From TrEMBL:
InterPro entries: Beta_hexosaminidase_sua/sub, GH, Glyco_hydro_20_cat
Protein name listed in UniProt: beta-N-acetylhexosaminidase
Stretches assigned to the Glycoside hydrolase family 20 catalytic domain: 1-102
Gene Ontology cellular component terms for the protein in this record: membrane
Sample GO molecular function, one term: beta-N-acetylhexosaminidase activity
Reaction it catalyzes: Hydrolysis of terminal non-reducing N-acetyl-D-hexosamine residues in N-acetyl-beta-D-hexosaminides
Family to which this protein belongs: Belongs to the glycosyl hydrolase 20 family.
Amino acid sequence: TGGDEINQNCYTQDAQTQADLAASGKTFEQALDAFTQATHAELKKQQKTPVVWEEMALEHQVTLSNDTIVKVWISSQNAQKVIQKGLRIVHAPSDYFYFDCG
């Protein structure tokens, strides 16, 4: 469901997003968690497995169920950190090889 390379400035500098967050009483991280929980619940209803990037497990304050698969891509060193959280991984670290666009 995403979570890689989130540019928080896009949200902190957007008036509508800030108004929505203020109206809901949520921080960006709380809203991200709520979105993730809702999205993952819908995926599970469809008997699908949630998949996220490692930032969701290591940088953001989101709750991930143990059946979530985390794509570890930034560093091989992060694989163990994600596994220690009880999550499954796809290990595809960019510290060995990385195709970027353009």
